[in-house]
């Protein structure tokens, strides 16, 4: 399975913070926002990831993350010059996907919860069509909403419904088989000129090959597209890290625990940032897990 982080868009809801920088380069507590979605793909065992962003942000993303070799990964980059819908990521990333399945995650989404890596790997292994990740919300009219039958199969997907049939918000994490590339290429752009991810999901629902993976109690999901959600995510990460003494979305630690790199490589990465708490944490983890 290949991975795509869609980190494009203009971040207009976060103005003036994003007037001169990409939203996904803003900080969520002590790390760039893009670390969080990338960490999810890593936890799913995905090592080849395409990062899609704006013309001005791609060089900065490349400077921040490099080619991924330091993490035992392969990172590549592509430009989305204008926001033309989430599903365009599959058209832009068609060569990257090749004949593989693909996981797409939005660059402003933060996920956290006990057992999350196991859930991701299980969803990847049992993928039949598409797997969408649902999260309960109190205001479902603001989200894409999925309705499921007794077996967990999706029977309908509605975007910001006036009368929601459930409170199952579809988050910005999606697993698809390789057919998604052809589906995305065959979409008719919406009135806004966008290739809508909801239309992709509806096609899988029509085929009877769409599953909603439930993220219930014990999981946290943030869509960091507003000032309030950006602050809330930062406060959440701060509390977890301060109370538990662990790091959320620490790419180097995840690479070590997933077997992408060894303890010596993790230690060297920590030494490069040894003047920071982050770097000191990496050197300690490397010793502890060696």
TrEMBL record:
<feature type="domain" description="Nucleotidyl transferase">
    <location>
        <begin position="2"/>
        <end position="237"/>
    </location>
</feature>
<keyword id="KW-0548">Nucleotidyltransferase</keyword>
<keyword id="KW-0479">Metal-binding</keyword>
<dbReference type="InterPro" id="IPR005907">
    <property type="entry name" value="G1P_thy_trans_s"/>
</dbReference>
<dbReference type="InterPro" id="IPR005835">
    <property type="entry name" value="NTP_transferase_dom"/>
</dbReference>
<keyword id="KW-0460">Magnesium</keyword>
<dbReference type="Pfam" id="PF00483">
    <property type="entry name" value="NTP_transferase"/>
</dbReference>
<dbReference type="GO" id="GO:0008879">
    <property type="term" value="F:glucose-1-phosphate thymidylyltransferase activity"/>
</dbReference>
<comment type="similarity">
    <text>Belongs to the glucose-1-phosphate thymidylyltransferase family.</text>
</comment>
<keyword id="KW-0808">Transferase</keyword>
<comment type="function">
    <text>Catalyzes the formation of dTDP-glucose, from dTTP and glucose 1-phosphate, as well as its pyrophosphorolysis.</text>
</comment>
<dbReference type="InterPro" id="IPR029044">
    <property type="entry name" value="Nucleotide-diphossugar_trans"/>
</dbReference>
<protein>
    <recommendedName>
        <fullName>Glucose-1-phosphate thymidylyltransferase</fullName>
        <ecNumber>2.7.7.24</ecNumber>
    </recommendedName>
</protein>
């Amino acid at each position: 399975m290949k991975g795509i982080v869609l980190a494009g868009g203009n971040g207009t809801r976060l103005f003036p913070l994003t007037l001169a920088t990409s939203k996904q380069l803003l900080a969520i507590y002590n790390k760039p926002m893009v670390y969080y979605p990338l960490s999810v793909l890593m936890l799913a065992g995905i090592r080849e990831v395409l990062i899609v962003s704006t013309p001005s942000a791609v060089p900065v993303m490349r400077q921040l993350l490099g080619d991924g070799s330091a993490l035992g990964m392969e990172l590549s980059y592509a430009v989305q010059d204008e926001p033309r819908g989430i599903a365009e990521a599959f058209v832009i990333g068609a060569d990257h996907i090749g004949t593989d399945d693909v996981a797409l995650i939005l660059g402003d989404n933060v996920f956290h919860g006990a057992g999350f890596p196991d859930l991701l790997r299980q969803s990847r292994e049992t993928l039949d069509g598409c797997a969408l990740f649902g999260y309960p919300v109190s205001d479902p009219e603001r989200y894409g909403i999925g309705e499921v039958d007794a077996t967990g199969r999706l029977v309908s997907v509605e975007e910001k419904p006036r009368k929601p049939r459930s409170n199952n918000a579809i988050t910005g994490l999606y697993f698809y088989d390789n057919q998604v590339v052809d589906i995305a290429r065959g979409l008719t752009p919406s009135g806004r000129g966008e290739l809508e991810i909801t239309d992709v999901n509806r096609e899988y629902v029509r085929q009877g090959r769409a599953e909603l993976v439930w993220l219930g109690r014990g999981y946290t999901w943030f869509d960091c597209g507003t000032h309030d959600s950006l602050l809330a995510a930062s406060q959440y990460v701060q509390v977890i890290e301060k109370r538990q003494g662990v790091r959320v979305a620490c790419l180097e630690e995840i690479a070590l625990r997933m077997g992408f790199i060894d303890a010596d490589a993790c230690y060297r990465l920590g030494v490069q940032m040894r003047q920071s708490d982050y770097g000191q944490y990496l050197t300690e983890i490397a010793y502890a897990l060696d």
